[in-house]
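Sat 14:20. Reprocessing the chain from the morning session after the first attempt stalled halfway. Input below, unchanged.
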Amino acid sequence: MKKRQSVFAFILLGVFLLGGVAYFIASFSDKSKPAEISAPAVPTPVFNKEGEVTFLKNGKPFKKIEVEIAENEAERNKGLMFRSYLPDSVGMLFIFEQPDEHSFWMKNTSIPLDIIYVGPDKKIISIAENTQPYSEEAIPPYGLVQYVVEVNAGFTKQNNIQSGDVISF
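Finished this time. Tokens:
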């Protein structure tokens, strides 16, 4: 009787093992694939033209760009943060109510930028070239500014934009 119980237990164990192996194989040979789950992509804000800035040298226009305009505190605080790309020959124009020493920083900004500081007379006071992405270090204007234009790094050098040039918008 004991031998019969051992054979029965052995057969039962074999059935369970075969069932487990069959289940394991079936789970890998399933032809229908479940939908892939991925984290939602964080969209890069799209450039939205709100105006144009023209650069003038000796009173004559020599370069024009399309700009988004940051004219209130919330827009100025956000600036070009969270953008992974900025098309060439576009930028952002910051407009302040009063001239002041408005410093900028690169917090949450992944694109290196040229920051063009402009006085109330629309004359370029200074340019911070090729700023460091993600830096929280203040980038001072070296004078009173009422307008600031941000463009891709290298834009000012490439277009010979210098302190003393003028902008119009």
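The longest helix spans residues 2-28.
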